[in-house]
Amino acid sequence: MSTVAKTRIAKPPIVGTPVFRKEGLDKLLGRARYVDDLEREGMWHGATVRSTIPRGLIRSIHFDPCIDWTQFSVVTAFDIPGRNHIHLIFDDQPCLADEQVNHCDEAILLLAHPSRQKLREAAAAIRIDYDPLPPVFTIEESERQDAIIWGQDNILKSFLLEKGDVDSVWDRAAHIVEGEYRTGAQEHLYIENNGAIAEYSAETGITVWGSLQCPFYVHKSLMAVFNLPEDKVRVIQTETGGAFGGKEDYPSTLCAHAALLAMKSGHPVKIVYDRMEDLAATTKRHPSRVRHRTALDADGKLLAMDIDLATDGGAYCTLSSTVLSRATLHSPGPYVCPNVRVRSRAWATNTVPYGAFRGFGAPQAIFAIERHMDEIAAAIGMDPIDLRRRNFLHDGDTTATEQVMREPVILDKLLDRALAESDYHARRARFVEENQTSPVKRGLGISAFFHGSGFTGSGERYLNSLAGVDVTPEGNVRVLVSNTEFGQGTDTILTQIAAEAIGVDYGDVVIAPRDTGIIPNSGPTVASRTSMVVGRLIERAAAQLIEMLREHSGLPEDFAHDEFFTACDRYRAAHGEVVSLCRYEAPPGIYWDDQTYHGEAYPAFAWSVQVAQVAVDTVTYSAEVEEFWSVQEVGRVLHPVLAGGQIEGGIAQGIGYALYEKVVWQNGHMANNQMTNYIMPTAEDVPPIHIYFEEIPFAHGAFGAKGIGELPHDGPAPAILNAIRAATGVAFNSIPLLPEDLFAKLGVVAAIEEPAAV
Amino acid sequence: MSANWPPISMTVNGIEREVHVPPMKRLLDVLREDLRLTGTKEGCGEGECGSCSVRMDGELVNSCLVPVLQAQGSRVETVEGLQCDGGLHPLQQAFLACGGAQCGICTPGMLMAASHLLERNPHPTMFEIREGLAGNLCRCTGFVRIFESVIAAASRPEQATHAR
Predict the structure, then answer these.
(1) In sequence order, what DSSP letters do the residues of A221-260 get, joined into one string?
(2) Is 80 exceeded by the pLDDT of residue A225?
(3) How many domains does chain A divide into?
(4) Mind telling me how many Å the CA of B18 is from chain A's nearest CA?
(5) Do A693 and A624 reside in the same domain of the chain?
(6) Are residues B94 and B73 part of one domain?
(7) Given a cut of 60, is residue B160 above it in pLDDT?
(8) Cα distance from A239 to chain B (closest Cα, Å)?
(9) Could you say which of A583, A615, A639 is where a domain stops?
(10) pLDDT in tens, A323-364
């Protein structure tokens, strides 16, 4: 096929088409290299000795004399050359505990040895003695402040968001409805456990390879721990087997541990956690308790929402403040209300620090408001659909932060489509009929919600991301970003954007290795920001590159494929590297006040309405999601297959969040830290999932894209519990909702209603 | 040191291999460490996730639960041997087209489970697909596109002749 004929204008579209996943072939052939697949010459293995108590002072460390310790490298906090903390928002989390431990499974000591087996024996031969201190395990215990375990008051962060005057409303409200809603911890359960390999030499400093989301988070953190300059720390992402937020901040700790052992031992050191260690020692989704007090007029219009939101942040702040921020901003839901007050606090407890997990506080907040909407509907005798419709945000309305909805808001359309596609009304009528006689009670539940795309408020401006493209002498366009691929499709999407924006083929574009020695800092791969924010930078960098080549290398207005690369060669000969980088520019008219939490909370919102059909078996007390519908508006869909995969995967995790996944705590330690007893949905549990996109291109996102990755996880839990409410008539306000929880409420009712056996 | 262990021989992806390793070493570790076939992954180490699924004498096994001595004299198939006639296995092709792989860590095991299913049952129903893949966990896809991939591969005529 001649490439000469392929002019830019005649080229078929790439964005919006289902091109094959960029790294797909390597994954399907089993040749993609994850961190545990890599070896380094002379490599040793590392292990971590962890706290066995939730809180206490470290009195002494005993090394069993039966082990020849000279064969091992042993690292404690005293070996840290720089600062003993993991840099993030606050620098409160030590890299290795020295005097005190604040949660079970906190790292105290590191070991390295050439043999993994010997390491296990040695780790078991170390005994640490403690002077225990009273631990705090729950939000309520932390609130009581009997023991102060963090700062002055156990509060990791608090926000107060106010719109209008909530307290002026209660007296004139036709209805006031209150409710309390709780969510539990949730494990990411990426199938690839955390792992890293580190090397150290005095000359080049530290190099780490790791399974991670944010190379520059790790980079910055290592600089502090080792007191090294920027150019003496290099972080390289390896193929990453799932993350979901679980590899946002934790790899900073793990990479530091591997690097400390590498420095001490003089060998490359690999640490790959097994499943039990990964589950016990790494972050999880924040548990939450949300209290709603809501005033409505006689027609079901919202008058006031008073929301008290508390999260359990664990022993150190890590990302709790930003998770709380997102929870706060999502807590009033997609509704118009003239008077809103959200008081939110993240509380410290002596458990593993909770961290980022897909949705980042929004699933907790949306569970509460969307469950609460159904309780309001029941309390005032209104259909939950009508109640939502009556209060939906529309174009021109303002949110709780008084952000004006400038972009089209089509919640009504999403709701209509969800009702039509699920045949909602006919199904509901059928279930009402069948439930009268069947021991299996079926119900439909809905949830409506938005998810803010990108960093909150001023976040993107602080990040000040830099990204771009260059063209190699070998004739490849390279995408230069720090954003990582861990299954969501970053590499594919950014390749599509670069290829189409420049006017070359999908196969002409490669992604530069995520190596901090090569790439600019385009920010972390979090917050549903990659397609919208970073993609937009690539789109702009591509346009800038074309302009540059037109101006300096005679690239014609309408160019053929080969003319582009010839122009690049000419440019390179005359000026050197062919590279185009762009820095983030906020969309115009964005105003945000970090102090009062007023203004444009997010540059864009993605919207969704979901419907769950759930069957509750009143003999076994199991609840099963039988079918699921999800309609969403995420701007333009850049890749239909990947976008669908994001929605379906998020829904499956949301189903797990609602009905299966329970972290069982025992004295601050995760007791069910195995896949055997921490249960996620399997191929037999996930129902048929129907997904539909409404597309409204967003002017400031790449090719019209908004965020998509987190959105689908926000809605399933409330939709499912609303369906159970519809099926059984009983309100369940806490997740995970397991059969024993259903039995606890439904079983009692059944026993009363059944006539005594004769 | 390794030479002190008695030899264990097996056919891996059609090639005779002999290893001198402790007999209780996990087949998973022998494949990954001694034979450098790192396509087979460890997810849980207790037979729950199926990432380490391989076929042993035509049976689907979790290689993390198989001491290598049990593999003595057996025929082992891993993801590295799935390609046929120099081309992609229909399942690999279908996973690529349908979005059956996201992060890719469960993919090798999922492919082995799916190929095992199709070999025994070339045209499975959705129920049979769900059942056949129930031992393999995927946290990314929600399984939907994995099911579609299996259906797509099953509907290709060459699937029937490919089965080994």
Answers:
(1) HHHHHHT--GGGEEEEEPB----TTTTTSHHHHHHHHHHH
(2) yes
(3) 2
(4) 21
(5) yes
(6) no
(7) no
(8) 8
(9) A583
(10) 999 999 999 999 999 999 999 999 999 999 999 999 999 999
For residue A171, the 8-state DSSP code is G
Q: Are residues B69 and B127 in the same domain?
A: no
Tally Cβ neighbours within 10 Å of residue A591: 12
Kindly list the residues from chain B whose CB atom is less than 8 angstroms away from the CB atom of residue A192: 41, 43, 103, 105
What integer pLDDT is reported at residue A756 of this predicted model? Answer: 44
Domain-located, residue A373: no
Q: Is residue A688 part of a domain?
A: yes
> Mutate which of A19, A26, A29, A646 to disrupt the B interface (most B C-beta within 10 Å)?
A29
Across chain A, mean pLDDT equals 96
The range of the structural domain enclosing residue A428 comes to 411-448+603-758
Q: DSSP letter string over A344-380?
A: EEEEE-SSSPP---TTTTHHHHHHHHHHHHHHHHHHH
**How large is the average pLDDT for residues A54-78?**
98
Q: Which residues of B touch A29 (CB under 8 A)?
A: 39, 79-80, 82-83, 92
Chain A residues with beta carbon closer than 8 angstroms to that of B77 = none
A426 alpha-carbon distance from chain centroid: 36
* Interface size, chain A vs chain B, as Cβ–Cβ contacts under 8 Å: 168
Domain range for residue B123? 90-162
Q: Cα separation of B87 and A28, whole Å?
A: 12
User: Least CA distance to B88: which residue of chain A?
Assistant: A29
Residues A748 and A626 in one domain: yes
Interface contact flag, B103 A240, Cβ < 8 Å: yes
The answer to whether residue B158 scores a pLDDT higher than 80 is no
Of A27, A645, A683, the CB nearest to B134: A683
% of chain A surpassing 70 pLDDT: 97
Task: Please check whether residues B54 and B95 belong to one and the same domain.
Answer: no
pLDDT per position as a tens digit, A89-109 = 889 999 999 999 999 999 999
CA distance B5 to chain A (A): 17
Is A275's CB within 8 Å of B98's CB? no
* Interface probe, candidates B24, B60, B103, chain A, greatest A C-beta count within 10 A: B103
The CATH number linked to B124 is: 1.10.150.120
B142 and B121 housed in the same domain: yes
ipTM of model over 0.90: yes
What pLDDT digit, counting tens, does each position of B10-49 carry? Answer: 999 999 999 999 999 999 999 999 999 999 999 999 999 9
Search chain B and give the residue with CA nearest A674: B44
Task: Give contacts of A 4-43 with B, CB under 8 A.
Answer: 18, 20-21, 23-34, 36-37
Q: Could you report the per-residue pLDDT of A147-189, keeping only the tens digit for each?
A: 999 999 999 999 999 999 999 999 999 999 999 999 999 999 9
By C-alpha distance, the chain A residue nearest B142 is: A649
Cβ–Cβ < 8 Å for A247, A168:
no
For residue A569, give every residue at least 6 positions away whose Cβ sits within 8 Å of its Cβ, in sequence order, or none: A473
Q: Which of residues 458-487 of A touch B (CB under 8 A)?
A: 486-487
Distance CA B92, CA A220 (A): 39
Distance separating alpha carbons of residues A11 and A450, to the nearest angstrom: 35
Domain of residue B36, CATH code:
3.10.20.30
Same-domain check for residues A755 and A641: yes
Across the interface, whether the CB atoms of A190 and B105 are under 8 A apart is answered yes
Identify whether residues B8 and B63 lie together within a single domain. Answer: yes
- State whether A494 and A619 are in the same domain: no
CB of A114 less than 8 A from some CB of B? no
User: Do the chains contact at A29 and B106, CB–CB below 8 Å?
Assistant: no
**A430 and A519 inside one domain:** no
- How many domains, chain B? 2
Q: What residues of chain A lie within 8 A of the CB of B144, using their CB?
A: 644-645, 648, 686, 689
Statement: residue A5 has pLDDT above 70? no
Instruction: Give the pLDDT of residue A701.
Output: 96
Using DSSP, state whether A608 is helix, strand or coil: strand
Tokens, residue A410 = 């089509």
Q: pLDDT tens-digit profile of B92-105? A: 999 999 999 999 99
Specify whether B103 is located in the same domain as B41: no
| Both structure tokens of A548 | 């540059």
Residue with tokens 């279908």: B94
Left, alpha or beta for A251 (phi > 0: left; psi -120 to 50: alpha)? alpha
